[in-house]
């Protein structure tokens, strides 16, 4: 998810805690805990500032830092920071940090980008693809919760935001159920199929690959899927020159579920069809032949 959505989810977690009679220092500590916990796995963006990091960015971003096995480490780190800053030592700080980091790592599984959820024990990039990177539904639900607490003072804020969290969770569940059903339909006809949610709730792209044929479908469970684009992947092309001259291509091949190979008179390259739009994919690597 994007940074803002992760922050909103973290703030929702904070608001879901009953804080009546809680010391101000504890409340501030919980807020900082929830916000840092909802963002800290994305600390891997610093790799962009190194030469090798620019090459390995796709594998490293949402890689080890998003591993479920590192959740306790991040939680302990945040707990120690909050104890030092606010002089409060309460197990609720640790559990809030644990929950915030776990939610961040897990919600990112549902994007097409995926995460290294099981690193370092498995380098497989796990991706479900049922939720877009930026999902306005989370924003609408969060803002609705804020408005309710502002104008309905009789309702306890922690109760309202627990319902906000439930609605967010239900949205993820409904989107995922719909997307996986559509993906299942396409898998019957192809060797491989991948799901990619659009920015419109309930609307999906499903990409199927069989041999050199790559088809991109668009639709929902209510309108069925319609084939929008057919691509040809030059599977017999020799990618050795590309891999020698462009090390990022090797990373993209390892990172993507499958790629489309382009081999014409001008260039040799690959791209991830899940991000294909207006004749190109923003995840692509090429070399010029001339």
UniProtKB/TrEMBL annotation:
Alphabetized InterPro entries for the sequence: Transcription_regulator, YdjM-like
Bilayer-spanning residue ranges: 64-86, 93-114, 126-148, 160-182
Key words of the record: Hydrolase, Membrane, Transmembrane, Transmembrane helix
Highest rank taxon of the organism: Bacteria
One GO MF term attached to the UniProt entry: hydrolase activity
The protein's name: Metal-dependent hydrolase
